[in-house]
Amino acid sequence: MSVILYVGLVLLTGGERLFELSVSKRNAAAAFARGGTEYGRGHFPWMVTLHTGLLLACIAEVVVLNRPFVPGLGWPMLVIALLCQAGRYWIIHSLGSQWNTRVIVVPGAGRIAQGPYRWAWLPHPNYLLVAVEGIALPLVHTAWMTALAFTVLNAVLLLGFRIPTENRALRQLA
Known about the structure:
Elements: H1 2-33, E1 37-39, H2 44-64, H3 71-95, E2 103-105, H4 125-139, H5 144-171
Helix pairs in contact: 1-2, 2-5, 3-4, 4-5
């Protein structure tokens, strides 16, 4: 029964990501209409692949390797995953029409300094939440190999490509 509930959780997470993509697509169209320029187009397909792979691997590892639900680990990880989701909506709300899954800079659109973006010590709160969620969601049902693989690959992608790209793009706003 816990496997069915977990698969449902992962599928709901996937459905939520599809909703986010529709919001992102709408915001991207508006940004381009206002003269926005996209940065880092080359690494974006890798991000989509990694995030899709996370969801598929969560299900596959639990089903194929018969991973158990361990309450002492699973319940806290579920709470963390849900808090990460709430944090993502705070970020989306804070960025408003500037929120996007892509890196698009619109001339004259100042940097957001509200919500979690008001803290200079936390320049990329969304990526922190994604990293934590990428550990918590698999560990809800002890899919530790998925959590480990996602963490390593996400770190390479974020630190090697995405964050440097976004930092270069954000300098265009200064």
